[in-house]
Amino acid sequence: MISLAGRDILHSWGKFVLTGFGLGLLIGVTLTMAGVYRGMVDDARMLLNNSGADLWVVQQGTQGPYAEASSLRDDVVRSIRGMPGVAQAANVSYLTMQVRGGNAEVRAMVVGFEVDPPAQPGQPGYLLAGRQITRSHYEAVVDIRTGFQLGELIRIRRHDYKVVGLTQRMVSSGGDPMVFIPLKDGQEAQFLKDNDAILNDRARTAANPGLNRPGLPGLLEAVQASQASNRSVNTILVQVAPGFSAEEVAAPIRRWKHLEAFTRAQMEEILVAKLIATSARQIGMFLVILAVVSAAIVAFIIYTMTLGKIREIAVLKLIGTRNRTIAGMILQQALGLGLIGFIVGKVAASFWAPVFPKYVLLESGDALSGLLAVMVICALASTLAIRAALKVDPAAAIGG
Q1: pTM (two decimals)
Q2: Taking the domains of the chain in order of start, what are their residue ranges?
Q3: More confident: 114 or 329
């Protein structure tokens, strides 16, 4: 029995392969979009893993430090360390900004962390090259995606920092690479005003009659001193002692310290379900649109190929071939086209995924789901061609 799919591949293999290649590129884009979403979720989880924390203590009424702004006084950490079940607690500041190195600028999350003692939460967990920060000022450890090299000087705000270590997969929830600097430098970069702003504020304060009355001695100096420095941080990262659960430690912090304390599960919920929720819905819409476009393309291609073989189908009907056999042949052709397209798409997605500026995570489970979806779409798309084939009059095989 003649196979329409086999005949079309053997005698028109160039057209069939090119069609499958074009469909494959579209499928590759679809797999990449799914990988972008998976990469966003993985970046959020890596951010939490790299922090080394079990609890995130932030300003009351906020969902900081990643989803919202949060500001705490850095001396609060001392009272947190005295809470039951707290093994370690460390101040950390976060600031997303443009970091300059040479003639290039890189958008990065600048992390200010406590250098001493080592192995505290917030510190970079491992290095690919170089060493950890040992000085209290002007040294940095950077993620390799910044493109900075060991020994290079990078500029953050008003100061230059020497890159002493390189790390990997240290990223923000948005995929920006991290730059680690000492906490005092991080506080200065985020909270301290520049010299001109401080001078302007001092002049404005001095010109305020209410602050220069004889009955308010020292108030002007106090205001100026507070303007010249800021001892704030964005969060306190807490490691829970063995034998305690994170929620057991968080509850008294919320009650007695009037602060928010988020566990790992709660922080992951904030990052995944809230922070990237809009992006996830947008990617989902793209996936739906791409699926519809893929189905339309497959339907058009199979329908066109079927119309080109009207006489062959009529001959099959004339010699008594059942409609089920003819429908199976067309379905086989559609599934073969989808299989070629999926293979091309999977290879293409694996090839161009590392080139994307954001992390693209291609999971095998998504690939299997994608293959199943492609086969289903191709089967549904072939119904239009099958209906056209079944309506063919056997007399067409005899006519001119």
Answers
A1: 0.79
A2: 4-44+277-397, 60-192+229-258
A3: 114
